Structure formats: C-alpha cells, structure tokens
Amino acid sequence: MQSSPPGLPQRLRAPEPGWTTRADAVVIGSGIAGLTAALRIRAEDPALSVLVVTKDVLSAGSTQWAQGGIAAALGPGDTPEQHLHDTLVAGAGACDVEAVRALVTEGPAAVHELIALGTRFDHHEGELSLTREGGHLRDRIAHAGGDATGAEIQRALIAAVERDPAIEVIQHALAVDLLLAADGGVAGVTLHVLGEGQRDGVGAVHCRAVVLASGGLGQVFSQSTNPSVSTGDGMALAMRAGATLRDLEFVQFHPTVMYLGPDSQGQQPLISEAVRGEGAFLVDALPEEGGTRFMQGEHQLADLAPRDVVAKAITRRMIETGEPHMWLDARHLGAAFWERRFPTILAVCREHGVDPTTELIPVAPAQHYASGGVATDLHGRSDVPGLYATGEVACSGVHGANRLASNSLLEGLVFSRRIAAVLPGELRPWAEPVPDGRPAGLTAWDRRRALQEVMTSRVGVLRTADGMQEALDRLAALGGAGDEAPGVDGWETTNLLSLSTALAAAALLREETRGSHWREDFPDRDDLRWAGHVDSRLVAGELRQDFVAAPSTDPSALTVENR
Ligand code: SIN
C-alpha cells in the first residue's frame, strides 16, 4: 500500500446547480460505448428514460477517429478461442480471462447487430472484408470506408439514437461530479453546460444509474492520437466518488503516429496498424542512407508484432540513432491501393506534405489508449452502487497490460450490451443527494501544458524510479490555487492533474516491465512479485494504492479447463 503524494487535487465542487432535470439512466459519453448503452437500455426496457450527455457534439469522441477497425472472429477458419489466445498473449498475463471470453464469444453477434443497425462495413466479393493488425494470428478486423471505420460506426449509431425520441441528448455538457446518496450510491450527476438555452452553466440531473462511457485520458500527455476531449473526466469523477481505478500504469503508445516535429502538441495523426497489416514495414533510415528493416529479428511477427513490442523497438532505435523518428515504407502498396484502402490516411499525410505512395512516412510512438480505468465486473459495474463504466474509461480486464489492436471498439460494444442486460433490473430507488461538504481543490487551467510535458518526459514510453519521483514532485507543485468559478478548462485540468498523479504513482509502484509499462530500472517481467493489479482509490481524501495479486493469464499458464 502506498499513500497519497502531496498536493493531489482530490476534490471538485460545483457551485449550487442553476437548473435540475431527471432521467432514469444517464449515459456520459457518445462514442460506440455510450450510444450502444443508450440504445440497448431502451431496447431492454422501453419504459426507461435515458439521457446522453456529451462534452462536445455527439461525434467528437475517440470512436470517430478509429481507423483500423473492429476485431471479431468472423472469418472462415477463425474462432473465438483463437481471438481469446491472441488477446491474452498481447495482455502479457494481466487480463481477466472471463472478461476476454465474454468479449470474443459475444463479439461476432455484436458486430452483426451493428450491421443490422445500418453500419456499412467494407466487403470483397460479397463477403465481409477482414484484415490483420499487430498481434493477431488471423485476418479478423472488419473495416469501413477503407480506414474510416469509427466514423461509419458513429454515423450509424447517431442515426439510431436520433430515431428514438425517448433518448434525450445534452451536448457541450461536461460531467463534473456524481451526486451521491446517503448509502454512497448514485443519486445524480452535476453538469457544466455551455450554451444549451435554459440549461446553461452548472446543473444537476437526478437519476437512478450512471453509465460512464466518456473515453480515455490521452491529454495527460503532450502528444496523443486522442482528440482534445479525452481529458479523463469519467475516471477522475469516479475516483472522487469512491470508485476503484485499476492498472492506470498500462498506457498504450501507438508505434506509428506521424511525426510532425518536436513542437507539435495535442492530437497527432495516426497511421493505422492496418497499413502494416497490408504490407508496409518500418526502416531506421531512408533507403539512400542505408535504412534497414529493424523489426526483422525483433519478433517472429516482425512489423506485425504486438503493439508494445513495436513501440519499444522504435523507441530503442530512436535512442540508438539519435533520430526523433523512424520511417514507414508503404510505397509498394501503390497509389490505387492507397486511394481505395486508406483514403483518410493518404489525405492526412498529403496535408502534412508527405505523399506515402512515393515517400516514406516519418513515424514515432505517441500515447494512444488507456488500458486501465474504472475497475468493473463482467457487467460493467463499478464498486459505487449505480455507477457502471464501459469502453476506454473502464478497466473490464480485457486488455491486461497491453490492448490487442482493434479490441477497443469491440469492448465498448460488448460491455455496453452487458450493462444494458442487467441495469433495468437493478435500478436504484430515487434518492436525495446528500449535501456536498467536500472542500474544493481546483487547479488553474494554464498548468495543463506543464503537466503534459512532465508526464511525457518522465512517465512516457520509458520509465525510471527517479524520473517518476521527479514527475510526482513537479505535479504536486501544480496543485491548488485554482479558479473559484472555473470553466470547462479548469475542471478538465484538475481531472488531468488527479489522474497524472495517480498514474505516475501506480507506474512507480509496479517495479517490473510488462506489456506497455516499460521500466528501464526493472527491465524484466516479474510474475512472482507483480502478477496482478494496482488499484487506486481515494480514502478519506488520500490517494491509496494497493497491489492485488491475481494469477497470470498467459495462454501458456492456463490449464485446459480455465483457458
Ligand atoms: C490502428 O488502426 O492502428 C489503431 C487500432 C486500435 O487502436 O485498435
């Protein structure tokens, strides 16, 4: 157990609400996880009122940006068992086998349901077109619009939500904090809404359940593939309400993010793994400078090794060569193939002055995905009564220490369906929120850049105890002295600071290298000491972190019965 580093901004406290409303269930977030949850809750019990709140417009979250696709055992010769195997291998012993089993066995039907809802996946000769990405031993990634899978799924889900008048939507609404009943369970949620007529400023929604589907925390780092809305609001809000956050240290860095120069900040262009799946490969210098294919010899799957392996190999080569990036060679795919298969990536590369049909693409790892999050059970329940979580905000156990490519859209889809299957039958009675006596502890929004820089340089791809301790000291100095009447920027920065502190402390605690958590000072995986999870929670205002041992879930460590 490790207790609170100093200066953690533990509390937000919204001013008295200026307006109130109510709904049986509030869904926070509007990507694949949120919209699926809303639609499925209504399908399970049409008498329930559902309110979807989203921080920007409905389509602004990470789903919209997903390129590669959605993984499921849909092809001839593939099976959920093989998908289970590949997911467990990528997860480096830290998955929950039952959660992975639910994911892979329910995945194919869930994808077919998306198709029935109107999602237009790519086909070839009448069959669903399936590709491969890092860590998959079969072609099992369904895609749409070539490389615009997320946008197509988002379009179909928004259309379905708009067809149901009983799903209310409030856009431009940041979820600030949960309102809790006397028993510690959910009684509502406070929102900070920008410009929605009568519902402007801080308001309260009374409800009987909250489903968090608010995405990840990419903005903790200076460079991320995540959109600007990914400020970890759902995780921070859940932690303040007493929920357990699990495995925050497992942050995935995508190996091939277009390198735009040392000063480029915020969301960076992703070059999908599917480009390597179609034959592109990494080299450490331009051909005329003698560049070599350094992934050969690193791993039996070479350029299609699991994501953490490729990100580490790239980082190592960058350190060895002193270069700020490596190169991706996809010229041989040819212009016609590029235009048909990767139109979005082609346009983005050209926008940034690189023609990938004739030139190599500069790439470097950047933050991509939070494998940890709000700890949930097999039906998305957190340990706060009435609070559920699904998608990137959650830690359902399917990703372990390193998410397998294209399992994220699937997780949101499958676990939102699982939440909807139980939520109507276990709705809490309406409850009065207890008065919020917590002290406010806000952070000034202009400290965001400083926290991103320290997290990137000290808690990024490569970690050491000294670096992380320095990060914690510098984060502690950024706390407090916030604005008494904050805007959305202030709430978000406070959330980012809380999560940065908990993440850095969890990463410092785990003294081993596993999956996406890479300790230079502890370079080996250590199952004797570290098979299990790092849980973070606030107890009486202090950050408490506990290591919870759990058996390793490598396929080789499982018996036939529990595989
Ligand atoms: C990619 O297209 O490379 C990203 C897919 C994912 O993160 O699962």
CATH architecture of the domain at 257-367: Alpha-Beta Complex
Number of strands: 25
Strands of the widest sheet, in order across it, are 9-3-2-13-22
Helix amount: 25-40%
Folded structure, characterized:
Helix 2 packs across helix 3 (97-116). The chain contains 14 helices and 25 strands. The chain is globular. The two termini are 31 Å apart. The relative contact order is 0.19. The chain has a domain at 257-367: Succinate dehydrogenase/fumarate reductase flavoprotein, catalytic domain (Flavocytochrome C3, Chain A, domain 1, Alpha-Beta Complex), CATH 3.90.700. Helices cover 30% and strands 20% of the residues. Strands 9-3-2-13-22 form a five-stranded parallel β-sheet, with helices on one face. Strands 23-21-15-24-25 form a five-stranded mixed β-sheet. The protein has a four-stranded mixed β-sheet with strand order 1-12-11-10. It has 563 residues and is α/β, with parallel strands linked by helices. The structure holds succinic acid.
